[in-house]
Write a structure and sequence with these properties.
The protein is 37% helix and 26% strand. A hairpin with a 3-residue loop joins strand 14 and strand 15. It is α/β, with parallel strands linked by helices. The protein has a domain of 221 residues: FAD/NAD(P)-binding domain (3-Layer(bba) Sandwich), CATH 3.50.50.60. The protein binds flavin-adenine dinucleotide. Flavin-adenine dinucleotide binds next to helix 1, strand 3, strand 12, helix 9 and helix 10.
Length: 383
């Protein structure tokens, strides 16, 4: 079958690679001038690794399994609130991988030959009829397809066209900063690895993960937000002041990260779940379908689960079967992805609490047995 995938982010390239491996004639259309993914690192949860495995794309990712043995939540000074046994959860459910986004994207797109990729091709309309879909770029028909996979990201323009009544994105009013740097000599970060620090005074958080043996990836979420977001230098300065009295590793890492390696995002998510991930011969995946806040680190892993599911449902399909197969994809993926989208929003509210509710939250977190927390983590990682 002829399949067009719109958008070459992590979700689009993995779907294109999977569908091509399943024997379809795939065209991947990307509006950017080249295929690339910029910006720091990414945590891939065991469910995401398993999904990539089913697409034949996990070899490189498995090599980047995270060495940390414990993780979980701490207060801003690094005192434990709910420390989980990450090694145990990884043994039970599978490895968490942490790797550079650029490297991950390169590995996922490696199986795609140049002739199936069209860069500098923004898709502005999809026109379905009885036999297929006409794909339009800059007002011109550029392809006909039996099925179209829409993977055009959080700000998806095609989502709005497919669901004109949907309210689209909701700005959460918070700012995320991410940075990556070589482990500074003499700074002992072991205790904080694979952990999240939360501060009930300001409702801010700081997470730290190892990328291989020598590189660190940190991310923060705070109410520093303003629209539009400040540029990286200004954002780093504000963050340094906000976190000056945190565990000494935190301000040291923020200061040691070059401004060019700091990325700033205003946090947004879908205002409401989509009513369907499939419309006739067209399916949505990744952030286009279920943009969630980054709090559970599940955005890309859910995109990989989508890519694996759509590949499986379209395996061996004839053009006449497409709509029915995509309905089955929707029935499989929408409940789980939307559940995680809601859980991420809840987690965002929980970590951003301040005052008495946050004090109560910290007391409750301290009372949760470690075994229970580890089991909950393992349940989320189970696809
Ligand atoms: C701060 C932060 C931290 C995160 N951390 C993690 C993490 O640790 N783990 C995790 O799993 N997830 C994480 N995520 C989420 C994750 O990055 C996303 O869920 C994932 O990258 C989405 O991939 P995607 O392919 O759906 O969309 P995108 O990566 O946004 O790709 C969309 C692509 O479509 C292209 N495009 C857009 N419109 C068109 C068009 N009209 N025509 C053609 N091409 C088009 C774009 O140029 C882009 O290449 C994080 C997100 C944020 C903001």
């Amino acid at each position: 079958m002829k399949i067009v995938v719109v958008g070459a982010g992590l979700g689009g390239v993995s779907a294109a690679a999977g569908l091509r491996r399943a024997g379809h004639e795939v065209t991947l259309c990307e509006r950017g001038a080249e295929l690339r993914e910029a910006g720091t690192a990414i945590v891939i949860m065991p469910n995401g690794v398993r999904a990539l495995d089913s697409l034949g794309l996990a070899d490189h990712v498995r090599d980047q399994a995270m060495p940390a043995v414990s993780g979980g939540l701490r207060d801003w000074r690094g005192r434990p609130l709910l420390v989980t046994d990450v090694a145990d959860a990884q043994r039970t459910v599978g490895a968490v991988s942490v790797m550079s986004r650029t490297e991950l994207h390169r590995a996922l797109r490696a199986p795609l030959p140049a002739e199936c990729v069209r860069t500098a091709t923004p898709i502005d309309a999809l026109e379905p009829d009885a036999d297929g879909v006409t794909v339009t770029s800059d007002g011109r028909a550029i392809a006909r397809a039996d099925a179209v996979i829409v993977a055009d990201g959080i700000a998806s323009g095609l989502r709005g066209r497919l669901f004109p009544g949907h309210p689209g994105l909701r700005q959460v009013g918070r700012l995320d900063l991410r940075g990556m740097l070589p482990n500074p000599p003499g700074l002992d970060v072991t205790e904080l690895l694979a952990g999240i620090l939360i501060d009930r005074r300001s409702g801010s958080m700081f997470g730290l993960f190892p990328v291989g043996d020598d590189v660190l990836y940190w991310f923060t979420d705070s109410a520093l937000g303003s629209a539009p977001p400040p540029e990286a230098g200004e954002a780093r300065q504000r963050l340094s002041s906000l976190m000056a009295d945190w565990h000494p590793v935190v301000p040291a890492l923020i200061e040691a990260t070059p401004v060019a390696d700091i990325y700033v995002d205003a946090v947004a998510c879908l205002a409401e779940p989509l009513p369907s991930f499939a419309v006739g011969r067209i399916a949505l995946l990744g952030d286009a379908a279920h943009a969630m806040t980054p709090d559970l680190g599940q955005g890309a892993s859910q995109a990989f689960e989508d890519a694996a599911a759509v590949t499986r449902h379209l395996a061996g399909a004839e053009p006449a079967d497409v709509a029915e197969r995509l309905l089955a994809y929707d029935a499989e993926r929408r409940p789980r992805a939307n559940r995680l989208m809601r859980a991420s929003a809840r987690q965002s509210r929980l970590t951003s609490q301040t005052g008495a509710p946050a004090w109560l939250r910290d007391a409750l977190l301290r009372a949760i047995p470690q075994r229970l927390a580890t089991r909950r983590l393992a349940a989320m990682w189970h696809a």
